Amino acid sequence: MPDNTRRARDEHFWKTFADRYSVEPGPINLENGYFGRMSRTVVEEYERNIELINRSNSVHVRQRFEQIESLEIRAQLARLIDVPVDTVALTRNASDGLQSLIRNYNRLQPGDQVLICDLEYDTVKGAMRWLARHRGVEVIEIDHAHPATFDSLLATYRDAFARYPKLKLMALTHVTHRTGLVMPVQAIAAAAKEYGIDVILDGAHALGQIEFNLDELGVSFAGFNLHKWIGAPLTLGFIYIDPERLADIDPDMGEMHFPVTDIRARTPYSTPNIPALLTLPLVFEEHLAMGGAAAKSTRLNYLRNRWVSAVRELPGIEIMTPDDPRLYCGITSMRFTRHTDQQAMVERLLSDYNLFTVVRSGAASGPCIRITPGLTTTAADMDLLARALSELR
């Protein structure tokens, strides 16, 4: 395979790749962080599977899907992230999985403390606050200084660990959905372990967008999406639990369809989107054929750096992620410092330049505009964005 760095700049290659996707005429989509596109071949496979299950109904599901295909798909998923098959269970999305992990974590006692930060996903924040109401624990909420550095992020967590000795559990987002900041998960998880604190990792935006080894990260519990950067249909995600820690997560609300020793008992049992699941083998094949996260991350980072480097030093523009390659990915946010209403500026980007972006709020540093190139985004799109930001600032 050609060097990923060289390929990332090869617009001809990425045009060929982009041609595998159907794109609706209209604004240039720079909000690819919401969910990803399926290739045309995946869409066609999905449609075939919808028709198959609709025709065969429960005959195929009972005889083939439940007995054979679902097991094969789960094994392929485990191979994709290089973990044992008994450590993963499919869910509808990362949020569902993270909620299940949080509400079923059974090592908390009244008076214990749990930790969240300002950059966590709102669903995760809500789930941790639910623990306070139903388990009698205290929620500790911290804010990260801006601009962030590797050392400042780690120091903020270490300070919290030392300040709150009753901490037992923390949420940690790998790629923050508000700003695109990539947390130094391995270092933070290692520090948490020193204090006896368990980490539940939100990997919703990480899988497929950045390279990581789950075993090396040092976390025992995690939730992921398959519909963002892997290219799967919507309604697909999964959880991971270290097999040595399975007993620390209770079966979900007394789930009995699987043995207590089976991770699948940690998720709600229901009829899944079977046609979408049957599409996963082709999704995995296409993801790996193009070079997997290594190729995707290099391309997305190249696109990100192209616009960021053009505007970072301009007065009136603030980039919300540092240029430390350990701390950024394709998702990056910015704001106009001379304009208080970032939503108004999003509307200007759309009306004046045909660029579709989104405002993210909730970070202690204030609202920002999230810009997420995708696998169909071109270098010319990034140059247009840089020009637009320069003119609007």
From TrEMBL:
One Pfam family this sequence matches: Aminotran_5
Q: Which SUPFAM superfamilies match?
A: PLP-dependent transferases (SSF53383)
- According to UniProt, the name of this protein is Selenocysteine lyase/Cysteine desulfurase
- Which key words are in the record? Lyase, Pyridoxal phosphate
PANTHER family in UniProt: BLR1280 PROTEIN, L-CYSTEINE DESULFHYDRASE
Matching entries from InterPro entries are given as: Aminotrans_V_dom, PyrdxlP-dep_Trfase, PyrdxlP-dep_Trfase_major, PyrdxlP-dep_Trfase_small
Q: Which residues form the Aminotransferase class V domain?
A: 43-366
Q: Does the keyword Lyase apply?
A: yes
Gene3D superfamilies per record: Aspartate Aminotransferase, domain 1 (3.90.1150.10), Type I PLP-dependent aspartate aminotransferase-like (Major domain) (3.40.640.10)
Single annotated GO MF = lyase activity
